[in-house]
Write a structure and sequence with these properties.
3 helices, alpha/beta, Ribosomal Protein S5, domain 2
Length: 109
């Protein structure tokens, strides 16, 4: 299970990401791990424009479940997953497809 990106220092790393990818309304920024640890940390940015708190929390739960069960696991590092306005209208399968596609485009797989 991936850790969470929590500190200001961790978020500052996304200013110069190692890779970026987009698919549909999902955008991913990836910062490669500089040490040899195999940890993955994920942050989610879901705007209020996507929907109310119920919708945003549902999207966050779905994304967490998808990231937990990705096969093969993404490269070690930190990930910022941004959700566009249309993300609230996506089904679970569509969200999974866009997540995998964005990870591949970011060079994280």
């Amino acid at each position: 299970m991936p850790d969470r990106v929590r500190t200001r220092r961790q978020f500052a790393l996304f200013a110069a990401p190692s890779g970026r990818g987009q698919s549909g309304s999902l955008r991913i920024s990836f910062v490669a791990e500089t040490t040899e640890s195999s940890s993955i940390a994920v942050a989610y940015a879901i705007s209020r424009k996507v929907g109310n708190a119920v919708v945003r929390n549902r999207i966050r739960r779905r994304l967490r479940a998808l990231v937990d069960h990705l096969d093969p696991q993404p490269k070690p590092g930190k990930y910022l997953i941004r959700c566009g306005n249309e993300t609230g209208n996506l089904s679970y399968e569509e969200l999974e497809h866009h997540l995998k596609e964005a990870l591949e485009r970011a060079g994280a797989r």
